[in-house]
Known about the structure:
The protein is mostly helical. It has six helices and four strands; from the N terminus they run E-H-E-E-H-E-H-H-H-H. A hairpin with a 2-residue loop joins strand 2 and strand 3.
Amino acid sequence: MTTPNKESGDAHTESTATLTRGPELVVGLLMMAIAGMVITDSLRVGTGWGDDGPRSGYFPFYIGLFLLTASAFIVLSTLLKWSKLKEVFATREELVPVFQMLVPMVMYVVAMVYLGIYLPSAILIGYFMRHHGKFTWPLTAGVSIGVPLVFFLVFEKWFLVPLPKGPIENMLGF
Length: 174
């Protein structure tokens, strides 16, 4: 990690780079939210000691407390040292490939909710093969259709494990 240096003409300035303090604060707050969900659900199912041992929420409750404490420490220390934290997390140029992977993956997860796993998987594989791998159309079509088809045969027919299906599979009778 480097520190922006305006005097030396360093290319990393605060306007073109993401400093570590932002991501640290966001991740700390996100982890606090997750810890809150763990603690809340643990309280719902019971955190005490029953006749036959600890209840279902006993261990998750303490893990949630530990996570909450650690993430609160990160948030507090980041806020207290906010003006002093000048380390560069990543430049804009370094973040572009991250978001080129992240955005399609998020779209894939959302699409799976509505379309099942097979069609979004074929589209995602095809997108990555063509856009990032620069593969030919025949190879891209073969792999992007073949992989979900193999998953269907292995999981649905061989192991008898149903995977999420969408309207297309329903129209085809699966």
